Amino acid sequence: MPEGALEHFLRSSHFSGGNAAYVEDLYDLYLHDPATVSPEWRSFFDSLPRVDGNISPDVSHATVVKHFELLGRRQARPIPAPGSGGINNEHERKQVKVVQLISSYRFRGHQQAKLDPLGLMVRDQVPDLQLAFHGLNEADLDTTFQAGPLYLGKPEATLREIVDALEATYCGNIGAEFMHITSFEEKQWLAQRFESVRCQPSYEGDARVDVLRRLTAAEGLEKHLDSKYPGTKRFGLEGGESLIPMLDCLVWRAGEYGAKEVVMGMAHRGRLNVLVNILGKNPTELFSEFEGKRLVNTSGDVKYHQGFSSNVMTPGGEVHMSLGFNPSHLEIACPVVIGSGRARQDRRDDPVGNTVVPILMHGDAAFAGQGVVMETFQMSQTRAYRTGGSVHIVINNQVGFTTNRQDDARSTEYCTDIAKMVQAPILHVNGDNPDAVMFAAMLAMDYRHEFGKDIVLDLVCYRRRGHNETDEPSATQPLMYERIKKHPTTRTLYAEKLVKEGVIDQQSADDMAAAYRAQLDRGEFVVHNLVREPDTSLFVDWAPYLGHGWRTEAQTGLPLTELKEIGAQLAHVPDGIQVQRQVSKIYDDRRKMAGGAMPLNWGMAELLAYGSLLKAGYPVRLTGQDVGRGTFSHRHAVVHNQKDGSAYLPLAHIAAEQPSFEIYDSFLSEEAVLAFEYGYSTTAPKGLVIWEAQFGDFANGAQVVIDQFITSGEHKWGRLSGLTMLLPHGFEGQGPEHSSARLERFLQLCAEHNIQVAIPTTPAQIFHILRRQAIRPMRRPLVIMSPKWILRHKLATSSLDELADGRFETVLDEHQVEPAKAVRLLLCSGKVYYHLLEARQEREIDDIAIVRIEQLYPFPDRELKAVLAKYSHLRDVRWCQEEPMNQGAWYSSQHHMRNVLRKTHPGLVLDYVGRKASAAPAAGYMSVHLEEQQAFIDAALASTAE
Fold it and tell me: How many other C-beta atoms can be found within 10 angstroms of the C-beta atom of residue 87?
C-alpha cells in the first residue's frame, strides 16, 4: 500500500485521532508475532510499505508512527509485553466494535435525538445504534475499552460510560449532522466541541436569566399585538420564540470576533419580533403601521416585509445590523442579502469576511422546496460570491402553510438536507430547550469564524397559530393543534426550569414580563444594547445619490489623447503571455483602433467605457455565465496564457491607484446571481455593477428578482439601485430561446421612472450609456438590450471622435436622407435598423427616413419631437420591429410615439410593420425566420407611390 494510500485509510477509517495509540499497540504485537492479531489486522499490516520485498520492523513501525503523529494522536499507553495478556483477541475484536459504535452515533445519533417540542415526530429505530448490531451486549457494559476518538477526557472508559456519553451528546435535544463533511479537520473540530461538553454546556446564571429576558420579550410582543390588534395578520413567532435569544447570541458572538456589520435576511414568520426585539425598531412605529398610517413617501409594503437597520453594542464594539426587505417570495431575499454582505466586505477591503457576517432565516417548507436555496448554497464558496460563510437559521414549524411535513412537503428526511451539498454542518435543535439553542448558536458562529463556511441551525419548533392569525389550523392539522393547545410556551417551560434550579425566583420572572409590557405601553425601545447615537462610519453613504432626476446630465466624452492612452493600455499584453491565435488577432485590431487606424467595434468601445471609468475612480463589477470572453466572443477582457492557463486582465492595469475591476464567470444560475448583484448594487452606489445574461431570454429564470426588486424596490421600500443588466437580444434565426430578451416584459413593468430600458445600436452609444450610468448621480436600474449579430457588423462601428465629443443619444436621427425629401418615416429600435438600412441602400430608396429610438423608457418625448419636426413632407409614419406584434416595444410604446406624432404631424397615423402576433418568441426554422424578415422589410420599404 503506497504511503499516501495509508494516510487516506487512516484518516477515513474509525482509527484516526485518539485511536492511534490503540492501533500502534496492535502493530507492535504484530511485529513480534503476526498470529497474535486478528486476520483483518494482519491483512492490513501485511500491506504496509516494504523494503527490498521484506517488511522491515524499524522502517515499517516508523512509517506508522509518523502517520499517527501527523494525525495528532494522544500519548500512547505503555505497551504490554508480547504474550502478557494485555490485549487478547476477543477484547481486540470488541474494541473494534466499540469504535464502530462510536462512529455510528456520530453518523446517525441525530435520528434518535429528541427534537420535536410537541413529541409528534415519529422516528424509526436506528439499528446500528443498538449494542447487538455491533456484536456487543449488556454483559460488556462494565468492560473497560479504549475511548478512542471519543472526547471523554480520559483514555479508557467502561462501555456504559461510553454509551451514556454518546446518548447525551448525539441523542439529546441537539441532533448534529456533520459526518458528511469530507474535511478531517472540520469533523475533528466539531466532534470535540460536541463531545467535550456532551452538547450540554453549563452557563453562568446571569447569562441564563438574560436568555429568559429575551424569551420574555419574544412572547410579550406577540401577546401585546394579539390583544391590541386581534385577528390582524402579523405572522407571529409564537412557538418559535427561541429565535430571539438565538439571534441575540449570534450577533453578540460575531461582535466578539470583530465583526462590524451583520446583514440579515428572512421571510415574514417572526419578522416583526426581530424588528422590535433584535434591531430595536420603536414599537410605536410598528403600532402606527398596524393602524395603517403612512410613514414614508413610497407606495409602501406590508409591515412584515419591511427592512430596518440599527447599531448595537457588543463585547467587540459597535455593530451595524441590517435586515433586508423581503417580498412574499420567501427565499429570494437570501442571495440579495448575501450580495449586500459581499459589497460591504469589499468596501472594507475584507476578502476573508471577518468584518461582515450574513445571517439568513428560512422557513422549513421554503428551505426544502425553493430552488434558489440550492443556488445560494452553490455560490457560497465561489470567487465571485463568497462571503466567508453564512449562518442559516431554519424556523422549522414542521408544517408548510397547510402542507403536512410527513407526507407532502418534501422527499428528504430533513428540510435541511440540501445543505449537505456544500458539506455544511447541520445542527437540529429543540426550540423548547433554550440552553441547547444557545450552545448551537455559539458553536455556529465559532465554526464560521474558524472555517469560513456556511452552517445551518435547524430550530425545530411549532406554529402556535395558523399560517397567519386569521387561519384556523385545526382544519388541516387537527392532531398537531390539539397538542399545541395543551403545550406550555417556551418561556413558561424555561422559567419553570430556572426557578426549579434556583437561578431565579418566580416573582422575578413575573416582574420581568410585567416590565416588558410596560415598556411597550410607553412606546419605548426594548433592545437593551441599542446604540442611540450610532457610528455613521459604519453606514453606506447614499447622500450624493439622492434627489436627482432623469434629466440630470453627465459629461461622458473624454479628450482624444486620453482615449488613445486608455485604448493602448487595454490592448497591451505583457511579454511572456502567450495569447491564443484568434484572441491575438482581436488584440492586434484593438491596438489599431486605439491609434485611430481602424473604426471602433462594440467590444473595444465597451472596454474603453470600463477603462475610462476605472481611471476616473469608479469601480466596475461584471458577472455572468461567460462574461470574461463574452458569449459571442466579443469582449475577451481576460487573456488566458496558453502556456500555463494563468489569466491576465488589462483592465486591472489602467492606472496605479485605480479602484477594483472585478469580472467573474458565474456558475450556471440566473435567479440567485441576479439577486446577488442587485443586493450588491443597493450597497455599492459608486461605479458600475453589471450582470450579463448568456442569452437575454435567460433573464426569465430570474423574473422574481426583476419583478419584486429591480423594477419595484425603490417604489415599495425606497431602495435605490444602479444595477445594469446586459441582455443579448436580436432575431437571427436561432430559435425561440435564443432570440428575445423579452423587451415587452420590461416595458410593461415601467412606470414612475423606475428603470431605464435602452437598445443602443452603435459602439459609441454603448460607451456613453455605460459611462452615464456610473457618472450621473441618479441611481436607477438600467436594462440594455445588447446585441449579438451587430457586434461585428461592418456598419456598426464608431470613431474615436464620437466617443470623445459625443454623448448617449436617446434618439438617433437619419443622416443619409434629406428631411425635406422624406415622405415616409420608419421608427425602429435595435438590430432591425441595419436590415432596413441595407435594404434601402440596395434598393436605392431616397425618400424613406429611418429614425432609431435608442431609449424606450423613460420615453424621449422631447428628443423625438425635435427630430420629427424636421420632416415636413411626411405622408406616413410606421413603427417597424422584428419581434412579433404582441411582443417587443409596440404595445407598450405606441401611445408615446402617437402622442409625439400628434404634436408634430396631427393628420398622420402611426402604423405597425413587423411579424404577426406569436405565442413563441421566434421561429425555430431558419427558412421561416428569413421569410418573415423579408416580408416585413418589403412592407416597410414598399414604394411610397403605392
Answer: 18
Gap between the Cα atoms of 930 and 642, Å rounded? 40
Q: In this predicted structure, what is the pLDDT of residue 466?
A: 75
Which amino acid type is present at position 117?
Answer: P
Secondary structure string (H, E, C) spanning 833-866: HHHHHHHHHHHCCCCEEEEEECEEECCCHHHHHH
SS3 615: helix
Query: Hey, how many other C-beta atoms are within 10 angstroms of the C-beta on 485?
Result: 9
Phi, psi values for residue 376, rounded to 5°: -65, -40
Q: Is the pLDDT of residue 127 over 70?
A: yes
Strand, coil or helix: what is 403? strand
The answer to whether 885 and 915 are in contact (CB under 8 A) is yes
Full set of structural domains in the chain with CATH: 1-87 (no CATH), 95-175 (1.10.287.1150), 205-529 (3.40.50.970), 560-805 (3.40.50.12470), 811-940 (3.40.50.11610)
Closest Cα partner for 72 from 189, 240, 217, 190? 189
Asked if the peptide bond before residue 230 counts as cis, ω within 30 degrees of 0, the response is: no
What are the residues facing 51 on neighbouring strands? 54
The runs of H, that is alpha helices, within 291-422 are: 333-347, 364-369, 371-378
DSSP string, 55-121: --HHHHHHHHHHHHHHTTPPPPPPPPPTTSSSS-HHHHHHHHHHHHHHHHHHHHGGGGS---TTS--
Q: Please state which of the ranges 93-97, 417-421, 650-654 shows the lowest mean pLDDT.
A: 93-97
Q: Which of 124-133, 542-551, 750-759, 870-879 has the lowest mean pLDDT?
A: 542-551
Angle at 907 between CA 903 and CA 913, to 5 degrees: 95
Q: What is the pLDDT of residues 741-782, one digit of tens each?
A: 999 999 999 999 999 999 999 999 999 999 999 999 999 999
Give the residue with greater pLDDT, 469 vs 58: 469
Query: 299 pLDDT band (50/70/90 cuts)?
Result: low
Alpha-carbon dihedral sign for residues 164, 166, 167, 173: positive
Q: What are the tens digits of pLDDT across the range 341-374?
A: 999 999 999 999 999 999 999 999 899 998 999 9
Find where cell 434618439 sits: 811
List the grid coordinates of 486. 395543551
pLDDT digits (tens, 9 = 90+) for 466-503: 777 678 888 888 888 899 899 999 999 999 999 999 99
Q: Is 552 exposed, middle or buried (0-12, 13-18, 19+ CB in 10 A)?
A: exposed
The pLDDT value given to residue 2: 42
All residues at 6 or more sequence positions from 4 whose CB lies less than 8 Å from its CB, including other chains: none
User: What end-to-end distance do the CA atoms of the chain give, in Å?
Assistant: 89
DSSP class of residue 526 equals: -
Q: Where are the alpha helices (DSSP H) in 229-332?
A: 243-256, 271-277, 283-290
Element (H, E) at 758: strand 756-758
Pairing label, strands 426-430, 174-177: antiparallel
Distance CA(169)–CA(23), nearest Å, equals: 25
Distance CA 151, CA 153 (A): 6
